Amino acid sequence: MSIQNSRIQPCLWFDDNLEEAAHFYTGIFPNSSIGHMSRYTDAGPGEPGTVMAGEFTLDGITFRGINGGPAFSFNEAISFSVSCKDQSEVDYYWDSLADGGEESVCGWLKDRFGLSWQIVPTRLYELVTDADPARAQAATKAMLGMRRIVVAELEAAVDAVT
């Protein structure tokens, strides 16, 4: 069963910027779109015309969102991981999602809305699970010293193992 046919979907709590976030994210990921946005009417409780809840799809995965106010905010306990085929993809997603946000370590960042992302080249998985424990350890150690994951630096660390 694919996630878009699943009864389980991520639902994100925004303060009051769900619509802005939906535009931001759909501008970054391919195969993305903004779905229905429910807006407050004169019946309240929000200002008429402002978004109450909505849906957006990122690379084929549908997210629900609500503008729930400032009671809750995102933290690192929940993150979304983006698997990247090469350094070019790593750089694209890192630069796009970190714009207005905050870089962290080991391929993690927070976007401008405070949502955490892991931008991970598939090559990292291959290197940290190398059959040679010394090579795997070298890749892991190199990764732990990085913010954005740089494939060439990982491979150089692994190649330096004798």
TrEMBL record:
<dbReference type="InterPro" id="IPR029068">
    <property type="entry name" value="Glyas_Bleomycin-R_OHBP_Dase"/>
</dbReference>
<dbReference type="InterPro" id="IPR009725">
    <property type="entry name" value="3_dmu_93_MTrfase"/>
</dbReference>
<dbReference type="InterPro" id="IPR028973">
    <property type="entry name" value="PhnB-like"/>
</dbReference>
<dbReference type="Pfam" id="PF06983">
    <property type="entry name" value="3-dmu-9_3-mt"/>
</dbReference>
<protein>
    <submittedName>
        <fullName>VOC family protein</fullName>
    </submittedName>
</protein>
<feature type="domain" description="PhnB-like">
    <location>
        <begin position="7"/>
        <end position="120"/>
    </location>
</feature>
